[in-house]
Amino acid sequence: MTHRDFATRAIDHPVRGAPATGDVVPPIHLSTAFEMDDPGAPGQGYKYSRFGNPTRDTLEATLAGLEGADHALALSSGMAAISTVCFSTLSPGDHVVAFESLFGGTKALFDDLLAPMDVDVSYVDATDPSNVAAAATADTELVWAESPTNPLLRLCDIEAIAAIADEYDARFAVDNTFNTPYVQRPLELGADVVVYSTTKFLNGHSDATGGAVVTDHETWMEHARFVGAKAFGAVMAPFDCYLVQRGLKTLPLRMDQHQANAQAVAEFLADHSEIEHVYYPGLESHPQHDLANEQMDGYGGVVSFEVAGDAAVAKAFLEELDVFNLAVSLGGVESLVEHTASMSAGNLSAEEREWAGISESLVRAPIGVEDVDDLLDDLATALEKL
Ligand SMILES: Cc1ncc(COP(=O)(O)O)c(C=O)c1O
């Protein structure tokens, strides 16, 4: 990695000024097959796009550089990245320790795919690292956490958990989707693997589904590349690689604005009588505000909150919003809002939602980069109508 600053690395790319054309922007290589010099000898190092593609290589080099890591793998979705890590690491009989607060798709993968394959998962409250230590066993191969978690914005002490995972010789993977490497770099804190849904903040424009795995472990990454790219065939398409590469150029600008807006929204909501609780690590009232200051370079762009009242009141409030879009997902330039119990957690039973801490009045609001006064006015007007 060069010693350039993050914002410079987000814009630079390995094929800048390519000898033939001098491209300032990396080209999109759509070819699925590449001409060979002779049978068995790939001409320019490429053979077949599922195995390797120049547009994907360029994005992977940029993603690794932003993380300060040696290797990155770009895949077709965040779930493809998570599945790749699991299936590259785990075998029947293995044990996983997972933060109990985590993205529903990851939990479904653990419960519905891994458990029937005789992979045992212990869910713990990882806000206290001693719970991770207490659950780990000689069979623990993988420790899994998000920080902050989706949708409750809980944090875990990445450095402390990395030390526990090391003791058990387990791989520690962190889903850093909410933060991006601009805000938090788990590998620097001792994690082994970082995964992303690039669909969110990394691309940032809500127009390409993708995922990434980033690590310094060369041999493990070779295996993960075999699993995710060659065997699953879950590679990111060249055009989507181009979109993510383009999105990355404004990542620092966007994250600064997402975070400034999110802080203002969180403070506004925390003071409002119609709001019962606000979850945002940037608030001093967040139980892990100090940890956020230690391991994050900001507080992220997602705010969750509970409206005073039941599901009907929360839904009535969402219907009154105009600037915010009623939609799942997060991380795009536009502010979104969802009633979590009936939208991203709508496939869970009431008991499962209760277990996950998702109340009927919980609203998740990924904050965009619009003018903050318009966002605050929109919220104030909708709350007045309740
Ligand atoms: C934290 C987190 N990880 C992973 C994913 C899955 O990403 P994708 O939808 O790109 O598969 C999501 C999606 O919402 C997410 O919020």
Can you walk through the features of this model?
The protein has 386 residues and is of the alpha/beta class. It folds into 2 domains: 6-248, Type I PLP-dependent aspartate aminotransferase-like (Major domain) (Aspartate Aminotransferase, domain 2, 3-Layer(aba) Sandwich); 251-384, Alpha-Beta Complex (Aspartate Aminotransferase, domain 1), CATH 3.90.1150.10. 38% of the residues lie in helices and 17% in strands. It is built from 14 helices and 14 strands. It has helices at 6-11, 54-67, 78-89, 104-114, 129-135, 158-167, 180-183, 218-231, 238-248, 251-270, 289-295, 311-320, 350-355, 372-384; strands at 36-38, 41-42, 71-75, 95-99, 120-124, 140-146, 171-175, 193-197, 211-215, 275-279, 302-307, 325-326, 336-339, 362-366. Strands 3-9-8-7-6-4-5 form a 7-stranded mixed sheet, with helices on both faces. The chain has a 5-stranded mixed sheet with strand order 10-11-14-13-12, with helices on one face. Strands 1-2 form a two-stranded antiparallel ribbon. It is globular and about 70 Å long. Bound molecules: pyridoxal-5'-phosphate. Pyridoxal-5'-phosphate binds next to α3. This is Trans-sulfuration enzyme family protein. Keywords: Pyridoxal phosphate. InterPro entries: Cys/Met-Metab_PyrdxlP-dep_enz, Cys_met_metab_PP, PyrdxlP-dep_Trfase, PyrdxlP-dep_Trfase_major, PyrdxlP-dep_Trfase_small.
